[in-house]
Amino acid sequence: xxxxxxxxxxxxxxxxxxxxxxxxxxxxxxxxxxxxxxxxxxxxxxxxxxxxxxxxxxxxxxxxxxxxxxxxxxxxxxxxxxxxxxxxxxxxxxxxxxxxxxxxxxxxxxxxxxxxxxxxxxxxxxxxxxxxxxxxxxxxxxxxxxxxxxxxxxxxxxxxxxxxxxxxxxxxxxxxxxxxxxxxxxxxxxxxxxxxxxxxxxxxxxxxxxxxxxxxxxxxxxxxxxx
Length: 227
Description:
The chain is mostly helical. The protein contains eight helices and no strands.
C-alpha cells in the first residue's frame, strides 16, 4: 500500500517536474545561446543605428550576460550605465538565477525518478496508459498558446504587463538611453524575438512529446494486451 502511494506521488511529482523542465529549458535558449543575440546586431542594424562597432556592442552584451549568469562584476563594456540601470539588472539576475536553479532541480528530479523506475525501485504510473510527459506537455503547451495570443494582440502592452508582474512597483526598467546606453543595443524587437524563440521551442517540445506519447501509448497497449 505504501509503495503504491509512493508510486503515484512520484508520478505526479514527475509530471510537475517535467513541466518546469520544459519551461526553463525553453527560457534558457535565448539566455545561454549567445549567437542568438549576435545575429540580431546585423539583423536589427545596430551598428548603423548606434554608430558603435560590432565588437563594442557584442562586448557590452557579453559583460551584462556574464554578470547575469556567472555573477561577475556588473558592467556594460564601453557603454555608459547608471545606478538605476544597474539595479534593474540586479533584479533581472534574481529571475535568471531562479530559472537556472529551477532547471537544475527539475532535471535532477526527473533523472532520479527515471533511474529509480529503470532499476525497478519504483513504478511510474501510466494514467489511461499515457506516460507522465503527455500530461506535462498538455499543461505546458497552454503557456505559449495563451502568451502568444496576448503578445500578438499587443506586444507593447504585454511587455509592460510582464515588467509589472516580475518587477512590481519599480520603473527602473524604463531606461534613459542617454544614461543607460545598453538599451540602444537591446531594442524591443530583440526581446520580442526572444519571446518568439521561447514560445516556439516550448511549443515544439510539447507537441513532439504529445505525439510520441500517443505513439508509445499504442505500443504499450499492445504489449500489456499480449501479456
